[in-house]
Amino acid sequence: MSDVNNPIEVLEVIAAISILVGTIFSFFSAVGLIRLPDLYSRAHAASKSSTMGVLFTLVGTFLFFIMEGTFSIRLFLGIFFVFLTAPVAAHVIVRSAYRSKVPLAPQSVQDDLKGVIEIEGEREQ
Question: Nearest CA to 114 among 122, 29, 16?
């Protein structure tokens, strides 16, 4: 029988669970991209779920390589830059789509950008 208190085995389990959670987030992101009705909802699914999916997967991989005795600065930087850039890129894409008058889906119940864009337009004039 194995000793549960072995830190290597605990890290292996944490890494495996992290990779599994990342896979689940990525799956939900893909489902959201297929099922959601408009660009705005799809961008939300792509930015939030896939960012968390990639984050958990890379953290699990990072933990695995730490157990093997290898510290990868590239993996660490990948975690940092994906976590930083993906939501910002999605925000910029959605904002430009809104300014280009891409319509909301009929199921959308709230338009939070309407007042903000109108105020920005008044300031520019």
Answer: 122
Cut 0.70: pTM above it: yes
Domain boundaries, the chain: 7-124
Q: From the CB of residue 94, how many other CB atoms can be counted at a distance below 10 Å? A: 19
Residues with Cβ within 8 Å of 20's Cβ and at least 6 positions away in sequence, in order, are 60
Q: How far apart are CA 15 and CA 123, in angstroms?
A: 50
Tokens of 91: 């925000």
The Cα–Cα gap between 64 and 47 comes to 25
pLDDT tens-digit profile of 16-40? Answer: 999 999 999 999 999 999 999 999 9
The alpha carbon dihedral of 59, 62, 64, 67 has a sign of negative
Looking up tokens 């909802």 gives: 41
